[in-house]
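If you are new to this repository, start here. Below is one unmodified record pulled from the training split, so you can see the exact layout before writing a loader.
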Amino acid sequence: MERIGKTVIIFSLLGVCILYSISLFLTPQFVPLDEVALHEGTVIRTSGVITEFSVTEYGNVLMKIEGNRTELLLFVESTNDRTELLNLSYGDEIEVEGRVQVYRGDYELVVSGNAIKEVTQQKSDISFVAQIAAQPEEYRGKKIRVAGYVEDVYTRVFYLRDETGNHRMRVKLRIINTNSISELHEGDKIIVEGVLSYNAGDMRYELNLIGFEAL
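And here is the target side for that same chain:
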């Protein structure tokens, strides 16, 4: 019986070693962002900090990550549950797994929603316009910070859009002279802070501006 017990333990340990070896073989290679272009057509892992987030008309998510002075576009294939994606923030660091391909002359990584892992130690509180547009009721009445691009600047109102222009948010200056928006220009990338409210008269959400800063 003792010999049988030792044999079982040996085979168990052997099995664990084999499974570990297989997992190493199947796990895609980790590639720094500045070397992704060398792996076209290959499934890899990489990591970076989120700088852009938008949603296409087909429900796919586009993100950009930066690292090692390199920027990479992520094409996240449509998924039924985008909750985790919508909880990501500007400045969050993520690790992703996907296939490297060239689209319109630029390298991108095609990934699925469950192949994104957040590795941020301290989570950012900055959202993206597309995230607010996807679930505005979650942010109503709350003070939020949103990253985006300036568009259509008026005396007391301007719009904040995502990089693709598919979504935009109306930003309203409530108290005159609180913040001067005259210094803003079309295309400026900024972070705005304000309280999201619903304007029943115009039947739309808008952000009551508290302040903004350039990116």
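Two things worth knowing about this chain: Confidence is low (pLDDT under 50) at residues 19-24. The first helix runs from residue 2 to 26.
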